[in-house]
Queue: 2 jobs
Job 1
Amino acid sequence: MEDRHIAIFASGNGTNAENLIRYFGSRELGWKVSVVVCNRADAGVLDRARRLGVPSVVMPKASFADRDALAKVMDTYAVDAVVLAGFLLMIPLWLIARYPRSIINIHPSLLPKYGGRGMYGRHVHEAVVAAGERESGITVHLVNETVDGGAILFQAATALTAEDTPADVEAKIHQLEQRYFPQVVAATLAPSLVAMPASPQ
Ligand code: GAR
């Protein structure tokens, strides 16, 4: 059977996008990453996609908000599921309706803590350190119409020390993301082939 197609939406460096592309590219799971959609022409994720031979489309905020333009990209690459890997624009409601339970996001905190508007990337880790938290983690969840509010698929926590800076927290979170995110996406899209990882204790 032909592979089904994942679109990755990303805005930044793209370490998670690269990890996902490599994971699905090296396994027979019936899913492949067919396109990377990025809202910033200077984002590192575009170089990564190019190196890995995955097409990319740059859609700045205005064209991403243009329903016809985005629908055309989804049609052109026959997209069946969307994975948000550090994507900072709001997902339009029509797209959420078009891909029920098939838009997956990763958030770099233990939701519902440190979620919502303005909570992304380093801002999250700064807030976690400012609050003196002794743990943080990652949440992989389905996307619905509330920011960071969809059903949680997986969480993993990591211990923090009083000395950890936001950059230290980011590095710990990055490790969790690299270790778990592709498997959680695979377990969600191909549950008969891949098991959801157990959350670390
Ligand atoms: C990741 O830490 C991801 O969890 C976070 O952005 C980073 C992207 O890194 N996402 C959010 O903050 C979403 N609210 P990457 O570009 O290297 O994959």
Job 2
Amino acid sequence: MRVLVVGSGGREHTLVWKLAKSPRVKKIYCAPGNGGIAKQAELVDIKQDDIEGLLKFAKAEKINLVIVGSEIPLALGIVDLFQSEGIKIFGPTKELAKIESSKVFAKELMKKYNVPTADFKIFKDSEQAKDYVRTKGTPIVIKADGLAFGKGVIVAKEKEEALGAIANIMDFKLFGSAGDMVIIEDCLQGEEVSILVVSDGKDFVSLPSSQDHKRIFDEDRGPNTGGMGAYSPAPIVTNDMYEEIKADIITPIIKGLANEGNPYKGVLYAGLMITKDGPKVLEFNVRFGDPEAQAILPRLNTDLVDVIEAAIDGKLNEFGELEWRNEPCVCVIMASGGYPGDYKKALEIKGTEELRGLEDIMVFHAATKIQDGKLLTNGGRVLGVTALGADIEGAVNKTYRAISKINFENAYYRKDIGSKALSKFKSAKV
Ligand code: AMP
Ligand code: GLY
């Protein structure tokens, strides 16, 4: 089988790494990929948002299966386009990618199916939105409706911050038409977790829980980032809680959409806050998480191609549960100093070769390139250093030992990935 992975980050490297283990996969292409992915896949110089260009390539190269990493091509309708040409592709249609690309769409869907989430109001007019903030007070959460490079959500502690966020999104159009509407919602308190399932439109199989670390600094301080590390499982999600999440959150959405004649196929990712009243949805995403994929997929024993194909063909009911390794997995992101603000690029990375082939240690590349035989940084989040261990403590220690072998100028990483799980559950298993 000839597979095309679309995207260029750590998640896509993890997908390629896992696909390379499948006896069914003969050739992997990745568009556009990165310096690490180039070791396992042939890179294709087409950007992820050039969906017509990707289609042309897939037809010419007789691609049998396409796996899309990020939400951007999904929101542009890559699935509809490839399906219309009879090429197997994994992910939701453009209409259902709105679960991520329109927060208003997602909130209305949650309301319709009684899915627990923060109380909210939708505004098309900025003055009305500001009046609402003035009467409601803070803390309060302001969300641009559309995709905004992960910057469209503001958790405001002060009224001025909330009013400023509304002005930026709606009056100054900082995110363009993504700010035509805003959602203003209650601020939830608790610990965040990610729950991912693979749906075939009627049935789904679930992946182990995981936890991302979104803030740049230790102890969840500083600005939000694309994610500075993750671990799986997240022991705060007990088996009973996972069942509750499936029954109250995942099943109503998947069955509800199926009954509407609009089946959801692909990864459904629920970003949850575990509040004192139970799990509530912060957001849905329509693809694997990054860096959650790096912490989840190394634990998967099942062939990824088999499950993805069963999902595309609507046959997950015959598939049974996925098989997982018991060992927890931890991924720590090494970033270029300055990220998520300004940072340097093209810094030489040393030490990754020494780690190649070490058992249960994986270095997933998020933004690297190879130039004149040297491995160079090529973005803010550079590497996702990942390890499996006998327990979370073991996986954490192994990951940081591996990191100590890698260096580039001004490398930055959080020192506390996994510490929340460690403080509560020293030897957590699935
Ligand atoms: P979202 O893209 O909707 O997940 O929001 C990004 C981040 O904002 C989440 O990961 C949370 O940290 C935070 N957030 C979103 N909604 C809320 C909420 N209602 N209460 C508290 N924090 C929130
Ligand atoms: N880890 C957050 C995301 O993938 O959206």
